[in-house]
Amino acid sequence: MPFERVKNFLAARRGQKAFNALSQANREIVFYSEDIHSFVHFEEIINGLFSRYKQEVCYLTSAPDDPLLSRPLPGMQVFYIGEGLVRTTVFRTLKAGLLVMTMPDLENFHIKRSQIFQVHYLYLFHAMVSTHSNYRKAAFDNFDTIFCTGSFQIDEIRATETEYGLKKKNLYSDGYRRLEAIIADVQRHRSLTQDSIDNGKKTVIVAPSWGDNAILERCGEEIVEVLLEAGYNTIVRPHPMTTKHRPQLIEAINTRFSENENFSLQIDVRDNKTLYESHVMISDWSGVAMEYAFACERPVVFIDLPKKCNNPEADRIPHTPIEVSIRNKVGRVVSPDSLGALPAVIEDIYKDTSKFTHQIRAAREESVFNLGGSIDGAVDEIMRIASTLKS
Fold first, then answer.
1. Whole-Å CA distances, 385 to 97, 120, 141, 144
2. Global pTM?
3. Tell me: the pLDDT tens digits for 110-136?
4. InterPro entries, alphabetically (predicted)?
5. Cβ neighbours of residue 239 under 8 Å, at least 6 residues apart?
6. Distance CA 384, CA 391 (A)
7. CATH class name, domain 3-176+371-390
8. 283 phi, psi to nearest 5 deg
9. Please, where in the chain does CATH 3.40.50.11720 lie?
């Protein structure tokens, strides 16, 4: 066992022991973060619980480099539990009132419900995507409460419950705070993008999903080459899973184009700056495409690669996935056989930006709950659930 793994294992054991030493009263509300990217979906809720209710929380993390381990928020106790045997044991023996997480597939693999305590499990979406196509068949079946980003998710989950005879879950009309945060960033920095447009040079961000049929795996270098030859500033923003599992692919792209002054590579997707500085996004089936369109009110060019469907029984749910229905409302679809036409498509879009702005706003209004004001309701609902569990 390499030194780093031994060190992380021992740290996880210490985290497990420290967490289990807490009184039950100190484990009323627990958050679980599978990586450092999950925190963006929890931060406002944790802050709201403490600022409005003085409610302290526990935060379990599987990231050894999680900055919260050394700099926790007020009202938060943080424990590292790793991602191996210790984590599996922590979940199986968990004594807590409410557990909030963004990891689906509870009970389907190694992450199980507690075998010794009646824990209430709450799922919080980390993307505004369909529930029956983007995720595995039973991804949400074992949660008690699900915070939904829009009505389409409620419709899909209820249809799934009916189709398979499942127990009805508590579905809360939540919203999507990451979108609200990006909108706030865009509004603060809108002048940067306008200056770039006025100077006649557009910035294109390439932000795909991950997997064998995603942009970077299939045609990433060709797209970047086309954009750079057309004179666009080009930002490549890989999905974190691509960075983690295929670093050689990212390195190959960076090696080929890094000397071009118009090329840049963004690895840290927590930084929204590249979103509000760009004028158009090129994506495939990534959830970030909707975040970009809805927050920046700018169009997306979708490369029409095969859609990754993680549920072979998705067709049993009679709802078109939003990532399919939204495409022509917020941008254009381009065949992977017509990548040379991308500059012409981008310029054509910018001849009629008002049309896309109107369509994007209408789609956003239809698709997202409580835009601009979701946090208070989310905090109240979590406190309501926690209070119910105590009574």
1. 9, 9, 19, 10
2. 0.89
3. 999 999 999 999 999 999 999 999 999
4. Glycerophosphate_synth (IPR007554), TagF_C (IPR043148)
5. 207, 208, 209, 210, 214, 269, 286
6. 11
7. alpha beta
8. -145, -175
9. 3-176+371-390
